[in-house]
Give the backbone structure.
Amino acid sequence: MLNRIWTFFFVGGFAAAIYRAATGHPEVWQEMVGSTFDMAETAFKIALGLTGVMCLWLGIMRIGEKGGAVDLLARAFGPLLRRLFPGIPEGHPATGSIVMNMAANMLGLDNAATPLGLKAMKDLQQLNPQKETASDEMILFMVINTSAVTVIPVTVFTYRAQMGAADPTDIFLPILIATFCSTVAGLLITSCFQKIRLFSPVVLAYLGGMGLLIAGMVAYFGNLEREAMQAQSSILANFLVFSVIIGFMLGAIRRRINLYETFIDGAKEGFQLAVGIIPYLVAMLVAIGVFRASGAMDLVLDAGRNLVGTIGLDGRFIDGMPTAFMKPLSGSGARGMMIETMQSHGADSFAGRLVSVIQGSTETTFYVLAVYFGAVGIRKTRHAVLCGLVADAAGITAAIGVSYLFFG
């Protein structure tokens, strides 16, 4: 699947470039070639930037493992994860890594979630009998990552504040609703392929409890003023992060673990993972850059505007579609599209709010796919791409719907 997608980006970009050149834009060839160099450099910088973060969090994770904190979390969520990931033996380190990754995603902590996710994927690869083919557990974990519920989208709040939004947090509830829809859709489509019993009492109890927790968060933060919501959500996220670090350390101290040496051992593993993902990032980001520079994305949007106008629908959501199309492909590209839309239309316009909700509704599917699977050498992704894109489509569709509901 990745081979076909990667090839499509180049072939589709080449076809679009021929069209643009024939219609008076010969500079497209220079832009496409330039994008290959730019995106290759960007891929390396991303991997380089991840190195320190992965060393930090994998070192902390190693302390947590030795101190027993990860085992404690794994036992708490064990009944749920045993039903969602039946191929993981009880007590395996993968369970703890998955729990920590899911917690980081819920807090909107992208930098923390990535190294934890890579650690989980490496643990899952140890259980995988076919090392170049994604297992069911790997696929479900990837889908959960690309559709994970974000309870506190601090990053989106920050961008909106920087772009001059009068109320940067007014998209909090729409994002929470959209990302929840994305997660449910991802679980449903993956369960169809893997025959997971989502309607078992245990799964329903956990998901119902999480739903009530999210509803409580919505009720609490929804009643706060803008300044209070932004301040309290930021304080909560950072307090929980540092509490996890201290909790891991205290557990390790109780077991008389050498914290420094344990951290260094985990950090070395983080460095090796960061280096290993560079070729996969270069391959994917260069292909995306060519597709974008060729004008193929613009052709798709123009066709969408014409179609919407023909059937008489409200076409305001089309201005948010560049972010929606870019979101599964490139996180940095989607952020750039979001900021550009807010600059062009205003942060408090319908389009400005819509792209903010889209940005927080899903993760970057192909980035997650390239990084997580690439880090462990997976080449055959099976139904991972389809399930991830279904979750993305559900999140983006929900984002458009709730944006019309809240801001239309």
The chain has one domain: 2-407.
